[in-house]
Design goal:
By secondary structure, the protein is α+β, with helices and mostly antiparallel strands. The chain has helices at about 25-50, 90-120; strands spanning about 55, 65-70, 75-80. It contains two helices and three strands. The radius of gyration is 27 Å and the shape is rod-shaped.
């Protein structure tokens, strides 16, 4: 079968490949390479973050939480005395506060590490 040759006012050359005007194709290849490198860096950071542990606790310290660098809850510790109070329903907000505090630390570390790795301010 013969190769199809298409010519449209200088836009396409033999084989249907677009003509590179002003280096656009080269610029796109370069941008694609930069993007691939940044995605690989982010993937590495994400994998490293799974091995990092961040801690947080409620205001009174009755509840402590541990999360990994991606914010996934690893452990939750509740002081036994906190459940033996007249209003144990107040424990819920303390649990949320401890997890939020730990995730806040993890998020700060993530932002710092991505800024350093990707060179963005």
């Amino acid at each position: 079968m013969a190769c199809l040759v298409t010519a449209v006012a200088g836009g396409v050359v033999d084989g249907g490949e677009p003509r590179d005007r002003g280096g656009v194709q080269a610029d796109l290849r370069s941008a694609r390479a930069v993007l691939a490198a940044r995605l690989a860096t982010l993937d590495t950071l994400f994998q490293e973050a799974t091995s990092r542990v961040h801690h947080g606790e409620s205001a009174g310290g009755a509840v402590r939480a541990q999360v990994d660098g991606n914010g996934r809850l690893l452990a939750l510790t509740v002081d036994p005395g906190a459940v033996r109070v007249p209003h144990p329903e107040r424990l819920g907000p303390q649990i949320v506060a401890a997890i939020t505090a730990a995730r806040s630390v993890a998020a700060q570390q993530w932002r710092r590490r991505t800024r350093e790795a990707l060179g963005s301010g």
